[in-house]
Amino acid sequence: MIGETSEVIVVGAGPVGLSTALFLADRGVRVTVLEKRDSLAAAPRAGTSVRTLELFRSIGLGAELDRRCWDGPAPFRSVVKDSAIGAVRQAAALPERYARLLAECSPIGIRRTTTQCEVQQLALEQVRQRGGRVRLATEVVDVALGADEVRVETADAGTLVCRYLIGADGARSRVRDLLGIPVADRQVAARLNTAFFRADLHELLPESSTHACFIRNEHVYCTLFAKGGDRWSSHLMDYPGKSAERTVLSPERTIHLLHQAIGKPVPIELLECNAWEAAIGMAGSFRRGRAFLAGDAAHVQSSAGGLGMNTGIQDGHNLAWKLAEVLRGTAGESLVDSYEPERRAAAEASLALSHRVHRGYQSHEDVQQLYARLAEDYLRGMLFYRYPAEGDDAVDILRNQTCVGARLPHRWLDDGEVSTLDLVGAGWTLLTGSGGAGWQAAADQLDVRQIAGFTELSGTGADGAVLVRPDGFVAWRAQRLPADPAGAVRSMLRGERRPPAARSAQG
Predict the structure, then answer these.
(1) Left if phi > 0, otherwise alpha if psi is -120 to 50, otherwise beta: which for 55?
(2) Which of 173, 174, 69, 74 is nearest to 119 (CA)?
(3) What angle do CA 502, 468, 341 make, to 5 degrees?
């Protein structure tokens, strides 16, 4: 029996799947999320990056983020200790020039964070408020791709029909398997255990609010990460007798190792301890016809570097605005052809960082030297990655200037309450300088904004222009006002809605 129809079905109600559904619903797309589990309860594993928080802020959730987030350690700021109660043996951070850029690159404070649990809960609430549907305990068993629709066979809800399907169902993706897409290059970087627990450790480990904490002694090599309130996680990376294979630790053994890390037998409520492989790999394709992969289904990486969940959420954001334009008829089907090359480029930057961080930790490389070596890799993977684009080949991250194919840089405007990022996102936006009046009549399809400091931000003349896509990425840049601005805008929009590459223009 054929059940309800949707414009888009998202399989997987993890942080990536629910965030993707939220970005779709926010643009008016009729979306349904299917999840085989009957509950979304989970341990607080991954944490958010500023880019993820920017995306939620861009759809009006700034106040909710203020309520749900807290200040944690700045990225790549860490201490190494013999135990939680012991002295600091080494402190490390990004080189100052990179730390300064991080502090200035976003309207979101660089230390603001929350976990995937809060992301899931917020996205779930907001999807439903925006008219989306979430069906738990609904397992997908088959997928049939047609020329104009996708039929999704479920174990208990019959056949559901949609225009497009998104598999965001994790590293062991059922959707990916049904589509016949391999992950041929999967590599195991490490096998470890991660414990999630409750304990009163903040007074014992005061550094936890400002630093990622690594514990190294004769009994254990692990992390101790604060997860908000009395919640903690620990990656148990090495200990005497550790097997090279994936090994399940008993609760007693896990608590013993945690006590060795803490330095005293404090009360611990162990929530769970997972034995897992820190794998790194990319799906052979992110798409089959009308079906797409996002998050771990498309690219899996370890927690090293802290970008896995965030890269996946950004997949969903990239895909959501494109599908919305296609479904509303403002762009042709070929717009979504750009999804894979763009997100593959972003994922490659994220996975490269994860792999290099793992190797550095495993080799016990001096942490300060490791961070100095990987500073640019982190910035590129977290926020400053670039989609395939023509022109502007030399990109200096530290300049943080407008670049075709990259996210529009953040600058505070007026009294410091409005960011350049607040001017874009609802649709296509043309930003101009003080001499840009000639663009106004040419851009009747666009939201045209004239902003102060445009020349410094854009690297163009005062009469130039920068076109920003609905996802906040720069699509096109004109150094100056051309002779036929209307023709330039029409040509540019036709091209951008028929990617795969963004374009640069001298005007």
Answers:
(1) alpha
(2) 69
(3) 35
* Residue 392 predicted with pLDDT over 60: no
Residue with tokens 């106004």: 440
User: Where in 267-332 does DSSP place strands (E)?
Assistant: 269-282, 287-288, 291-293, 299-300
Decide which of 1.10.3720.10, 3.40.50.2000, 3.50.50.60, 3.30.1330.50 is the CATH code for 2-69+110-185+281-382: 3.50.50.60
CA 402 – CA 427 distance, rounded (Å): 18
Domain with CATH 3.50.50.60 in the chain: 2-69+110-185+281-382
Q: Which helix (H) or strand (E) holds 213?
A: strand 212-216
- 44 pLDDT above the threshold of 80: no
* 391 band by pLDDT with thresholds 50, 70 and 90: low
Residue-wise pLDDT tens digits, 126-175:
999 999 999 999 999 999 999 999 999 999 889 999 999 999 999 899 99
Look at residue 228 and tell me whether its pLDDT is greater than 90.
Answer: no
**Cα(433)–Cα(452) distance, rounded to whole angstroms?**
7
Tokens of 459: 């690297």
Name the one residue in this structure whose structure tokens are 């305990």: 137
How are beta strands 231-238 and 159-167 bridged, if at all? unpaired
CA distances to 111, 330, 332 from 7, in Å: 37, 16, 16
